[in-house]
Write a structure and sequence with these properties.
Oligomer: single chain
CATH class of the largest domain: Alpha Beta
Helix content: 40-55%
Largest sheet: 7 strands, mixed
Structural class: alpha+beta
Number of strands: 10
Order of helices and strands: HHEHHEEHEHEHEEHEEEHHH
CATH topology of the largest domain: Endonuclease, Chain A
CATH architecture of the largest domain: 2-Layer Sandwich
Strand content: 15-25%
Number of domains: 2
Shape: elongated
Length: about 270
């Protein structure tokens, strides 16, 4: 028996093959007994009843016990709402449990990022943690994806400043690069650079369609983050001068003195 699109969608939500087939069959048939359903989906009665009980626990089916068991599928919207609520509850419980774990302090390292989702998720987490100053360098598509996160950082008092590559109506302070379309076309993808507080940095190159991560790295090395901050700040200052744009603050490393610079100057343990 082949898998339908509806069944495949349920498999993506964590349903077993039998559960997916039973739910779809119940939706098509209307209320039915376990015996009838086992015949309809070609599964053993014992496996069918086990799957129906599991569906009941998921909130996917209702059971009438008045005259033998008759099962009925809940409407699709009600099912999705129940699954979302269950996922939220489990996520909150998992977060509470995982928050009790204490990771040992690790030496700064350079980590590879492999997917666009991983790049954007890490970038959002970095932006959310920013406390003092955040520099960015974003091509149009990544900028659109991260603009709201950057705005939230700016709204809570973080000095946010960056370089963009296409005109944009935004409340963020940004310098529009003077690079020509021909120059931008020579860059092999969509650039993503985020540097918060001189403490960590992310640089990534996504494919032009945004579907692949061609190159990506993140590091919590304050030394490297300060170096990247210094380099990007210089680019932003030069871009502002070329555009005759006045910046609200001087973003150079020693002018803003981000927290990462102070941490970099702390004596090493045992020194």
């Amino acid at each position: 028996m082949t898998t339908t699109n509806s069944e495949s969608a349920l498999l993506e939500l964590g349903f077993t093959e039998t559960e997916a087939k039973l739910f779809c069959e119940l939706t098509r048939l209307g209320p039915a007994t376990g015996y009838r359903l086992s015949k309809a989906v070609g599964k053993a009665a014992a496996n069918t009843y086990q799957a129906l009980e599991s569906l009941s626990q998921k909130g996917a089916v209702l059971v009438d016990d008045t005259d033998g068991k008759t099962w009925r599928a809940v409407p699709a919207g009600e099912l999705i709402q129940a699954l979302q609520s269950r996922f939220q509850q489990r996520s909150e419980s998992a977060l509470a449990a995982l928050s009790t774990l204490q990771a040992p302090e690790a030496e700064p390292r350079l980590y590879a990022l492999k997917t666009p989702m991983q790049v954007l998720t890490r970038a959002r987490a970095m932006i959310a943690k920013a406390q003092d100053v955040l520099l960015f360098d974003l091509f149009p598509e990544p900028f659109a994806a991260l603009e709201d996160d950057l705005l939230q950082a700016a709204d809570r008092g973080v000095k946010v400043l960056g370089q963009i590559y296409a005109p944009a109506e935004t409340r963020l302070e940004a310098v529009l690069t003077q690079a020509s379309p021909a120059q931008l076309a020579t860059w092999p993808g969509l650039q993503v650079t985020v540097i918060p507080d001189g403490r960590e940095y992310l640089v990534a190159l996504l494919s032009r369609d945004g579907e692949r991560c061609l190159h990506g790295m993140w590091s919590d090395s304050t030394y490297l983050a300060c170096l990247y901050h210094s380099g990007l700040a210089a680019e932003i200052v030069l871009g502002a001068q070329a555009a005759d744009q006045t910046l609200s603050f001087k973003p150079t490393l020693f002018a803003v003195s981000p927290p990462g610079l102070a941490e970099l100057n702390r004596p090493l343990p045992g020194a």
